[in-house]
Amino acid sequence: MNSERIEWPQYFMMQAVMLSSRSTCTRLHVGVVVVKDGRLIASGYNGSVAGTPHCNEVGDYMVDGHCIRAVHAEQNALLQMAKMGIAAQGAEIYVTDFPCVHCTKFLLQAGISKINYLRSYHNDDFAMELMQQKQVELQQVKLTESDLSKFHFEQFLNN
Fold first, then answer.
1. How buried is 76 (Cβ within 10 angstroms: 0-12 exposed, 13-18 middle, 19+ buried)?
2. Residue 126 belongs to a domain
3. What is the pTM of this model?
4. Is residue 125 part of a domain?
5. At a CB cut-off of 8 Å and minimum separation 6, what does 111 contact?
6. Where do the CMP/dCMP-type deaminase domain residues begin and end (predicted)?
7. DSSP secondary structure string for all residues of the chain
8. What is the percent of the chain where pLDDT is above 70?
9. Which residues are catalytic?
């Protein structure tokens, strides 16, 4: 086995992490990739509706403790798939943060079969219950310094 090659779960999670850097949310940067048959088929990050002001420009729009200006990363990925006519049935997601209960419902309704997440974030008991009822696999993916060192970003600097 080649120790220099990153494993698939870490590879896809690193793509989600990279996408999170596009987030315009002031509270939490979230990125997600949707994978089917080992191929990335959609992606998303949290931010405002396309063409409207972003939270990092005009501030959060808070209602009942939640920013309602932002579209969640998982929602953006599912909407991207809908626009492109791509079925989510049987796909899995890699998301930087455990999905909220609303995103969990959307993911399950769309047919996502596995949720891979990096960080726990306000894990909702009802979301967990729904995943168990739907028999959706849940896995936390860990990233190590070794995983990060395999990206060799330095080779792209100053070229």
1. buried
2. yes
3. 0.90
4. yes
5. 87, 88, 89, 90, 91
6. 7-129
7. --TTSPPHHHHHHHHHHHHHTT---SS---EEEEEETTEEEEEEE-EEPTTS--HHHH---EETTEESSEEPHHHHHHHHHHHHT---TT-EEEEEEPPPHHHHHHHHHHT--EEEEEE--S--HHHHHHHHHTT-EEEEPP--HHHHHTT-GGGGTT-
8. 92
9. 74
Give the annotated binding-site residues: 72, 100, 103
- Kindly state whether residue 50 falls inside one of the protein's structural domains: yes
Q: Which residues are annotated as a binding site for Zn(2+)?
A: 72, 100, 103
**Domains of the chain: total:** 1
- Residue 36: C-alpha distances to residues 41, 68, 80, 92, 108 (Å): 7, 30, 15, 6, 15
Per-residue pLDDT reduced to its tens digit, 10-65: 999 999 999 999 999 888 999 999 999 999 999 999 999 999 999 899 988 889 88
pLDDT tens for each residue of 70-87: 999 999 999 999 999 999
Name the residue range of residue 42's domain: 6-153
Contact of 78 with 88, CB cutoff 8 Å: yes
CATH number of the domain enclosing 42: 3.40.140.10
Is residue 1 included in any domain, yes or no?
no
